[in-house]
Amino acid sequence: MEKIIIIHSLDENKFFAMNGEVKVGHLGYELEDKIIYINSTYVDPEYRNGFLGKRLVDQCIKYAIEENFKISPRCSFAVELFRRIKKYDDVKVI
C-alpha cells in the first residue's frame, strides 16, 4: 500500500485522503464568517481503524489555525472527536 497523503481542495471545500490517485476518504466543510463548519467525514471501509478520519480533522484544524478561523463540528464523527480531544477546544466555536 502506498503512503496516504491529505490534500486540500479550496475549490471544493474538501480535504481528500489519497492513496496514489485513489480518493480513500474526505472531509467536507463550509466556510462562513471565518468559521469552518465540518459537515461530513468519510473514510473508505478498507481504510478505517487507521486514524485516517482523525488525520483529516487534524489537517482541517491546521488550516483553521493558519487562517485564524474557528471550527464548528457538525457531522457526528467530528462532534465526537472534538468532545474527546480537549486540545481542539482552542479552535472550536461554542
Explain how this protein is built.
The chain is α+β, with helices and mostly antiparallel strands and 94 residues long. The protein has a single domain, classed as Aminopeptidase (3-Layer(aba) Sandwich), CATH 3.40.630.30. It has 2 helices and 5 strands, in the order E-E-E-E-H-E-H. The protein has helices spanning 52-67, 76-84, and strands at 4-9, 14-19, 22-32, 35-43, 70-73. A 5-stranded mixed beta sheet has the order 1-2-3-4-5. Helix 1 links the parallel strand 4 and strand 5. The longest helix has 16 residues, at 52-67. The mean pLDDT is 95.
Please describe the biggest sheet, giving its number of strands, its sense, and whether it closes into a barrel.
5 strands, mixed
Indicate the low-confidence ranges by residue numbers. none
**Topology, number of strands:** 5
Question: How many helical elements?
Answer: 2
The CATH superfamily bears the name Gcn5-related N-acetyltransferase (GNAT)
Order of strands across the widest beta sheet?
1-2-3-4-5
Shape: globular
**What is the terminal separation in angstroms?**
39 Å
Integer tally of domains: 1
CATH architectural type:
3-Layer(aba) Sandwich
Give a brief rundown of this model:
With 94 residues, the protein is α+β, with helices and mostly antiparallel strands. The protein is 27% helix and 38% strand.
Key phrases:
94 residues; 2 helices
How is the topology of this model organized?
Blueprint lengths: L3 E6 L4 E6 L2 E11 L2 E9 L8 H16 L2 E4 L2 H9 L10
Parallel strand pairs: 4-5
Antiparallel strand pairs: 1-2, 2-3, 3-4
